[in-house]
Amino acid sequence: MGLLTKEIERAPCTVEISHCFESLHAHVRFNNGAVIYPGDEVKVQGPEIMAAFGEVVSEDREAIIVRASKLEQLWTRLTGDFEVMELCEFSFSEEVTL
Amino acid sequence: MNMQVPQNSRTSGATHTADATTVEESLAIQEEQAKYDDKFATETAMANTLLTPRFYTTDFDELDAINVDGIRAEWDELIAQMEADPNKGHFKKNEDWDHVDWENMEPQLKKEFIDFLISSCTAEFSGCVLYKEMKRRGNNKDITQLFQLMARDEARHAGFINDALREAGLRVNLGFLTQSKKYTYFRPKFIYYATYLSEKIGYARYITIFRHLQEHPEHRFHPIFKWFEEWCNDEFSHGEAFALLMKTDPKLTSGRNVLWIKFFLTAVYATMYVRDHQRPAFHKALGVDPDWYAHEVFTKTSELTKQIFPITLDIEHPRWQPTLERLQRANVQIAYGKKQGGLGGKIKEWLGSAKAASCFVSLYAIPANKHKVPKITRLVPAY
C-alpha cells in the first residue's frame, strides 16, 4: 500500500439478500479471506441483485475493492469518529419538514 | 447459485427450483416466478425506496481482547435469555393487526408516519449490517455469539417494519450492495456509548408510547404500535449487552471518558428533542405533547443508564428546557437558510449554525448529576 496511491483488488464474494418477513438483511462475504480496512471502497460487480418479497437470494459475484492509500486510511481512522452519531436511531429522518 | 423461496405455492408439479427434476421444469418455474414478480410490481405501482445503510469497520483486535470472565454470571444469564428467544414468532401480523386506511390518512400524517417507518427500518437494517460485520470479523466466541444474536433481532424487526411499508405501497430496494460503498471507522468505545444509549433511549421511547396508547387506544392510528412492547424489550436486552461490555473495562466509564459519556448523553437527548419536534402531525395523532414526551423519555433513560454511567444529565436544570427550545429554533433557521439559497440564505444558515453550536455548548456545560454505579448491572424492563 502506497502513501498516496490506491490499489485495486478483485475478490470473489457471496451476496445474500433476504427479503422475507422473518428477516430483512443483505450481506457480502469475501470468499478469499479479503479484509476491509478503514477508507476502502467496495463495489459488487454485475446488475443490481433484487429479491422479491418472500425470497432469499444468494449469488456468487466478484467484488472490486479499491484500497485506500495509507494517508486516506489514517485520515478515516482519525475523522471517522465525527460521524459516530449516525449509529443512534431517532425514529425520524433529519429533514426539518416533509 | 440462486436460491429462491417463492412466496406463493403453485398448483402442480414442483413449486421450487430446488425440487425441479429437469432443466426445462426449473426454467419454467423461474419464468413463472419472474412473471409474477413483474405483474405484482406493475399492478401495485409500488414506489421503490432504496435502503442506504452505512458501512463501518472498527478495531476488531480490541473486540477480540474483551474478556467477560469477570462478569461471567451476568453475561451467561443474558446470553441464555437471548438464545431462548422469547420473542420468536412474535413479530407477525395476527388478528390484532387492524385494517389501515392509508387512502384516507391525513396527508401530512401519512408523510411523517412513512418517514418514521423508513427511518426505523433503515436503522434496524444498519444495526444488522454492523452487528453481522462484528460477528464475522471477530474471533472471540463470547463476542461473536452476542453480535450474531443481536443481528438476528435487528433483521427480524426490519422485516416486520418492511411488511408495514409494503402495505403502504412502498417497496424496499436492497440493491445498494452493487453501488460503491466506503467503509468508515469508529473506535469500539464510541460504538459502545452510541449504541448503548440508542438501544436504551429506544426502549424508553417505545415503552412510553405503548403505555400512553394503552390508556388512550383511540389515538392508535396504526396497529404497529401494539407490537412496541416486545420490540422494545429486544432493544432493552441489547442495551444490557453493551452495559456488560463496558463493565469489562472500568476505564470506559471513568476518568476522561466520563466527558465522552456526557457528550453522548447531551448529543443523543438534544437530537431526539429536535427530531421529534419536526414531526408535529405524528405526535398530534398519537395525542402526545412532544415536550412532555421528551421529558418522560429523558427521565426513564437517565434512570436506566445509572446502571453503568457514573453521571446523568440534569434535565431539571432551569437552563435545560429553554436551551433545547432555542436549539430547535436554530435548526429550523438553518433549514430555511438552505432552502432560501443565495447570500441571504447562507448568512441565515451560518447564524443558525452558530446559535445551534452555542446551545449545544450551553447544554453540555450544565453540571451533571453524579452517582455511584451499582455492583450488579443487570436490569429488567419495568416501565
Could you name the key traits of this structure?
heterodimer; A: 98 residues; mainly beta; four-stranded antiparallel beta sheet; 4 strands; flat; B: 383 residues; mainly alpha; Ribonucleotide Reductase, subunit A; 2 domains; two-stranded parallel ribbon; 6 strands; 61% helix; 5% strand
Approximately how much helix is present in the residues of chain A?
10-25%
Described by strand count, sense and barrel closure, the largest sheet of chain B is: 2 strands, parallel
Q: Identify the CATH architecture of the largest domain in chain B.
A: Orthogonal Bundle
Strand segment tally of chain B:
6
Give the total of domains of chain A. 1
Shape of chain B: globular
Q: What fraction strand of chain A?
A: 35-45%
Please state the average pLDDT score of chain A.
88
Termini Cα gap of chain A: 45 Å
CATH topology of the largest domain in chain B: Ribonucleotide Reductase, subunit A
Topology of chain B as a string of helices (H) and strands (E): HEEHHHHEEHHHHHEHHE
Looking at how many chains there are and whether they match, the oligomeric state comes to: heterodimer
Rg over CA atoms of chain A: 17 Å
CATH superfamily of the largest domain in chain B: Ribonucleotide Reductase, subunit A
Question: What does this entry look like structurally?
Answer:
The complex is a heterodimer of chains A (98) and B (383). With 98 residues, chain A is mostly beta strands. Chain A has one helix and four strands; from the N terminus they run ββββα. Chain A has one domain. In chain A, strands 2-1-4-3 form a four-stranded antiparallel sheet, with no helix packed on it. In chain A, strand 1 and strand 2 form a beta hairpin. The longest helix of chain A has 10 residues, at 70-79. Chain A is flat. Chain B has 383 residues and is mostly helical. In chain B, 61% of the residues lie in helices and 5% in strands. Chain B has twelve helices and six strands. The N and C termini of chain B lie far apart (48 Å). Mean pLDDT of chain B is 86; it is low at 1-23 and 33-45. Chain A: This is DUF2218 domain-containing protein.
